[in-house]
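Researcher: Here's the sequence for the chain we discussed earlier.
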Amino acid sequence: MKKLTLSLSFALLAIVSFAQSPYKNASLSDEARIADLLSRMTVEEKVGQLNQVNGGVLTGPSVANDPGAQGKIQLLKDGMVGSFLNVVGTEQTLATQKIAVEQTRLGIPLLFAFDVIHGYKTVFPIPLAEAASWDLDAAEKSASIAAKEASSAGLHWTFAPMMDMSREPRWGRVMEGSGEDPYLQGKFAAARVKGFQGNFDENHVLATIKHFAAYGAVEAGREYNTVDVSRYALWNYYLPSYKAAVDAGAATVMNSFNFVDGVPASGNDYLVNKVLRDKWGFDGMVVSDWASFGEMMNHGYSKDAEQAAIQAIMAGSDMDMEAGVTRTTLVNSVKEGKVPMAVLDEAVSRVLALKFKLGLFDNPYKYHDAAKEKATLMADAHLAEARKAAGNTMTLLKNSDGVLPLNSPKSILVLGHLAESQDDVLDFWKGQGEHKYTVTILEGLKAKYPKAKLTFIRSVSREGDFDASSVKEMKKAAKKADVIIATIGLFGDLAGEARSLSDVSPSDGQMEMLANAKATGKTVVILVQAGRPMIMTDVVKDFNTVLYTWIGGTQHGHGVADVLSGDVNPSAKTVMSFPVAMGQIPVYYNHYNGSRPHIDGNEGPAHFWVSRYRDIPNEPLYPFGYGLSYSTYEYSDLKISKSSINQNESVTVSVNIKNTSDVDGTEIVQLYIRDLVAQPVRPVKELKDFARVEIAAGQSKTVTFELPATKLSFFDQDGNVLLQKGAFKVFVGTNSRDVLEGDLELR
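Model: Thanks. This is the structure I predict for it:
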């Protein structure tokens, strides 16, 4: 009894002591509290704050005999974990947080992280599809809902948004970004950061700028591959979107896997210290991508784990996700003077600052409310927004016969595995979304057309093979059908990380299914479900109605049906150019002219010795910014308020747009420029602004843009802003190809 009494007395004394500690005092500034806490921490505890561990299930009967889970819990008790990832749900996060707060020497709370890319439980359209809506408010709202659901499940932090500008549809991760344009990518990055973070309250999560930097330029579109870009391309194409997210207040940044200028991003002093911290003023925390500190050894940049950890922390990177090189070597490196204590303290301070910012030291359990979690996940309002978002992203590529919208068909024949597969409605980055809750295309059609007779024939297996025995059944069903809806594309698990493909064409089996559908003589509507642009050349050559549905998330099927029926008038436009053929990749709108440029369509001897293919056009099948609507629009009367401005002035650019149809619609109006003569050279077009404009049937609107001289600027190879005098072209149009143009001089 005496021993127990002494133990309790010691525990109470410790509690009182820490309660009086400045770092526990909510009335002090975060800076003062961090300084006090650092003064109390051992080197081991400091290094522990830089260690992020993949957790999984850590508490409950199932882990009692799990050595792996027990080892992670012991690391936590020893003060050697600053954050867990993949520990989700209030039950697990609360129990694990209690260990951190109540069973460690200093009671430092954990950060719980998870990849919430485009939804937590309610899954929204993939980010690439969302960007096709060109709707920034919708992007902010979807991120906010994702954050609300994730935070209700005990999470503090997501590894999104991804803002890697990419021109590479073979790369599976294009689905995570916003396409090939740095300006548009930056706009969506900022919107998503605001949506995720809000005011850093318990209904939001910390956002992460990833992958820093230039990861979207991986050679051959192959995941984890080499990136080799010039500093000029880095500053003008790849860095602007990251900067937009920094300016929007993103709390954290994630290293990319690739190297830049021969130095892996995790240990790249130029990227992290000189650009991110010094030039842009980012004072938040930098986390590695999964094991990327240690993978500097794979690059041949680090000889061993100790050197990798030193290189990372000296370059300004902070938290080691899963590599373990920091946890196992950094204590000795600091004690031996290889890493100054001041550098370690700066890194730890950035981690602690986030925990104070979220209020975790004052209320470490504020994110762990089981009742709130139950009420929040997949709430009716969230599902309604997901459905709206899905319809907003469907991109109409072709409707030359005016078949769409489908007005009350009596009989529909639906073809293709993708029409009924719940397993393929979601992608790799589905968060905690469950396939059983997703709405397939077939289910969406049944709900939209309850009086129609729907016949489904799979025709193509999940492996992409055509079932020849289905031809007879197809012909029979087609005789009674008003329309055939055929689904093709790529399966859901082919979208996301490590999902690179050498060929992004429809399978031979899918094409055979389409050929047999066409042979019936009935009208065929093609739906393409994929997480990237595909090679659609043969499809659009043979068929007149093609709707690109992307991967629309939990409410995918309803979104498709809303567009097919005309309840939603499509307005989405491509944010990546669609290639004519595989050999054309990469193809993108904002390219440079070479020494002998070729204009597609020009033939003859005078156009032989030019930069061109001999078997396909240079231009993409569908350009950046392309998309049709059930409305039609006519652009006219482009006006620029001044023909000449100085570097401190701006012009207004206006255009008249008439809805020439009998359907109310939303048009995405796009403003581009071209700097005709510059040193260094500039692209043939650059997006500088856009507007989503609602125009009633038969009505006209004048759309006006403000174009300041600063938007005519660009960067040199050191990131300095250049604004050069000279002649410019100004373009306004419905996509990057079909534009009106005017002239402007910067004097």
